[in-house]
Each structure stands twice: as structure tokens, then as C-alpha cells.
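Section 5.1 Outputs to date
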Amino acid sequence: MKILAFESSCDETAVAVVEDGRRVLSDAIASQVEMHALYGGVVPEIASRKHVEVIAALTEQALREANCSRRDIDAVAVTYAPGLIGAVLVGLSFAKSVAFGLGVPLIPVHHVRGHIAANYLAFPDLEPPFLTLAISGGNTLLVDVRSYTDMEILGSTRDDAAGECFDKAARVLGLPYPGGKPMDALARQSAGGVYTLPHAHVNGAPLDMSFSGLKTAVVNLAHHAQQVGQPLDRAALARDFTQAVSDTLVPRTMEAARRTGRQVIVAAGGVAANSIIRADLERACRKEGRRLCLPPLRLCGDNGAMIGAQGYYEYLAGNTAGMSLNAFATRDISDRQISAKK
């Protein structure tokens, strides 16, 4: 089964053709990073307009690279939530028109489910159940993946997502947007242990997380150093910040695995590309004898292939939609309303 998949939840327009949920025939991506770097972050209106400008040509490119014609497409999958609402609407509207024109099913895919499914492309033998640490610019979740379409959130951030904090900390340290990659490079230049940063805990919810205090602490440290004329060890602060994030994520991940009895742990999302977090996860899983699946860096960020992969399993579960399907800026990963076909 060949699925034409669309992803436009933020600042990447992505179109892919995926066969049977596991084989990527093409994965075309148009990034807007250089444009948004001028503003230090994503400008939603600009992002939406750029999606409109490139999505048709990108679709033709994806079909061409997959050596497919329109007649070869069996279904259309698309991110319908969560994300920047204008950006999501562009991809959803275009996908609707394609599905309607081709007379094939429309499959709605939750963006975070897509990130999880990226691991099916990297690890052909991976099957549920397993535990997922989903970490990106907009989401930080611990998800119990019971089946390909049955998922439960066990823990989440109460405020900022981990990826958002990386971007804010990077800006304070004078690093370019997006901040994840330059923060990683800077942190690797130091052993850290210079700055004392907060590690928040949520009373009564041991698997939940909070990053707003950590973000504020980094901002205050940098501003104080500037005001009193003290030198700031940028590399050490980047390392200590990253370690504080990892020290929040990894122990909770392992605790969730112990509580659920999951022997396989999967990482997903853009922050899963961070080398320090990856190393800490590998060390923790090795210590407890659990299998860890870390997607290759190219599958950590937003892409269309992950939407096509999850779309296949949503289709098998009967989760298709009609032309009345709407986009949502926020939506729970376990939402079941997407199966409505009217």
C-alpha cells in the first residue's frame, strides 16, 4: 500500500511516499530555517505562506523521486494536529484536495504519533508494546505505546517543552535559531559542573516535568553576568543546562519503564537528536538491560515519512476521515475522534 503523506505543522513542508508503513520511497522536505532565523524563531504567518508556496511543487517532487504516478497512490495521510494552526491548515487543506481528486482515503495523523512511528522506519523489527520518550519543540511526553494506535500519556511537561527551552537558552547564549544543534555543539566543549541549575519535581506526579524554572535560571544567570561585568562560561552553561534537561528526562523515562514493565524504550522528536541525552539514555538502558531505539538524526526532525508510516497503521485500524476533518493546534495523542468519517 502506497501512502502519500503530508507534514506542515511548523516550519518544514514535507511530502513523502511510504509503502506499507515501513519502506520510504521518497521524503522531500522544504525547510524554512534560514528565513525564521532572521527573527530568532518561527513567525506563524510567514510559515503558513511558505507552505502554500512550495507544497504543490514538493508533492510533484516526492512522486517523481518515488517513481510513482498519481494512480499508484492508495491513500493520503496528513498531520491534522497539533501545531501552528495556520501551518497545519495548509497541509490539511492540500491533502484533502489530493485525496478527493484521487478518490482515495484520507488518513489523519497526530504529529507526535508520527514522530513515534519514525522508529518503525529505522528499526524494521520494532513492534508495540514499548515506552516512548517524545521530546520536541512543542511536546515533552512519556507515552505508553500499547499498540500501533492505542497510546496513553504517562507523564508530560506542565509548562514549556524541552525543545522550546533549548531555543530560549540558545538565544540568551548568542547562538542562532534553531538552538538545538548549536547548543549541543557548544555543550560538548565543556565538562560542565560550573553552574547550579534547578531540577523541578511535580508533587504527586512523579512522571511529570517542568522546565520553565530551568529556562528562567539560565536567562537570569546570563543577564546577571552581563550587568555586573562578569565573564560567562558559555560552554559550561550550555553543558550544565543540557545535563539538567537530561537529568529530568532520563530518570523519569526509566521509572515509567519500570512501572509499565516495558523492556523496549523508544526516543522520538527533534530533541532526541541531542548527543548528551542520547548518551545518557543509552547508559541508563544498558544498566537496566532494556533495549533502546534511537532514530537516526534525519528522522528526529519533522518529515513526511513518519506521517506516512503512522498513517498506514491508522488506516489498518479504520481511522480515516472525510472532508469535514478540521485542524487543531492542540490535541491529545490518545484522541479517538479522528475515526469519524462524516
